[in-house]
Automatic annotation (TrEMBL):
Keywords: Membrane, Transmembrane, Transmembrane helix. Belongs to the Tim17/Tim22/Tim23 family. Signal peptide: none annotated. The keyword rRNA processing does not apply. It comes from the Eukaryota. It is a multi-pass membrane protein. The keyword Repeat does not apply. This is Complex I assembly factor TIMMDC1, mitochondrial. Its main location: membrane. GO terms for cellular component: membrane; mitochondrion. The chain crosses the membrane at residues 121-142, 171-195.
Length: 253
């Protein structure tokens, strides 16, 4: 009986190596690793000692914002530039009570096309910039330096993720195109850094300088407003205190 039970346990452990106890231990170990190592390292690289965005995270925000704004402008202009001619060609037989009605309709169509085309292309370009800058920042944090190979790998991964919804062929084409664009970006950036004698870390610090300056200005304005409010409140308090003293003196007399 004991031998049969032992064989059964051996067979179960052979075919089902992850039992309930092992699953529980694995889950506890994974949660411990996630909390103590992954989340701590992630917080250290996302935030600085003042709990502001780190220079790498700020570079991702800057690149994504620049891509979104550029995509909105380019997409909106490309979508809206042919709207007036198309509208005139489609509404040649339309009779308006006044010419300003036609101008108003054309302006509405242009604005609508500008918003639609701008948002569509802005989301695409912003997503691409976010993926590329995020992966590039991860490579920079891991290696501690900037090189062309990291840019090529970042472009390849970004292109693959960007076109993975189009199947295997689309992912392969996106990987190839992304690697080419990443290589071009890496070579041009390396040349600029070599000519100017600037390190990539200094560029990250420069990208973080604008938000830091903006925060300092906001704090200064807040201090000034608080000081003005404090002075006004102090004046009101002094006036009230003087009026109360005057009333008390009159009552005593």
């Amino acid at each position: 009986m004991l031998r049969t039970l032992t064989h059964r346990r051996f067979v179960c452990s052979l075919f089902f190596p992850f039992s309930s106890s092992s699953d529980q231990n694995f889950g506890e170990k994974w949660s411990k690793i996630w909390k103590e190592k992954i989340m701590v390292n992630l917080n250290n690289h996302l935030y600085d000692e003042k709990r502001h965005l780190s220079k790498e995270a700020q570079s991702v925000v800057n690149a994504t914002t620049a891509g979104f704004v550029t995509g909105f402008i380019l997409g909106g202009i490309a979508k809206a530039k042919d709207v007036p001619e198309t509208y005139k060609a489609e509404n040649q037989a339309t009779v308006y009570q006044h010419k300003f009605d036609a101008y108003r309709e054309i302006q509405y169509k242009v604005t609508l096309s500008l918003i639609k085309g701008g948002l569509s292309f802005a989301l695409k370009l912003g997503t691409f910039c976010f993926l590329f800058s995020s992966i590039s920042a991860i490579f920079y944090i891991y290696k501690g330096k900037f090189d062309v190979i990291s840019s090529t790998c970042s472009g390849a991964i970004t292109g693959c993720l960007y076109k993975i919804n189009m199947g295997l062929k689309g992912a392969f084409a996106g990987t190839l195109l992304g690697s080419i664009l990443g290589t071009i970006y890496g070579i041009s950036t390396a040349l600029i850094l070599f000519i100017t004698g600037v390190e990539m870390d200094e560029l990250y610090e420069t990208g973080k300088l604008f938000p830091s300056t903006r925060r300092e200005k906001i704090r200064e304005q807040t201090r000034k407003l608080m000081a003005d409010e404090k002075s006004e409140l102090q004046m009101l308090y002094e006036q009230k205190y003087a009026s109360v003293n005057t009333i008390k003196n009159e009552e005593k007399q």
